[in-house]
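yo, Regulator of nucleoside diphosphate kinase is done. seq:
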Amino acid sequence: MTYLNTRPGRSAPLPHILIGWDDFETLNRLADAATGDLAPAAQYLRRELDRAAVVATMKLNPAVVRLGSVVSYAAGKGAERTVQLVLPGEADISTGCISILTPVGAALIGLRAGQSITFTTAQGRQQSLEVFRVDQAPLAKA
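structure:
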């Protein structure tokens, strides 16, 4: 299954995203190494990395979603959720830590409050999400 974030002629244009060099390098290595069940999400993450504007990590606005960010968002008409975006080994949905190697995690990277994106879920449905708030926090401990 591929995770496309748009379908030509059917979705809104992709939002402009920013990624710091440190995350860019980490996420490229992660996407390259992903296999098995993680491979489709890694392909989607790779597409997001390819279209991102990469900036010096120190110059990245704190309002931009990056690894370790605490993000409040809503998917579709669903309730607002707050999660922390983490590496796969640190993910624990029961504590609100979601992996960058999920469709939602890959969709969130590089967005700012007020931005929206449409992507395809693991179940093959088109889903949009909107970011409401971004806070920076240290990465969750596994």
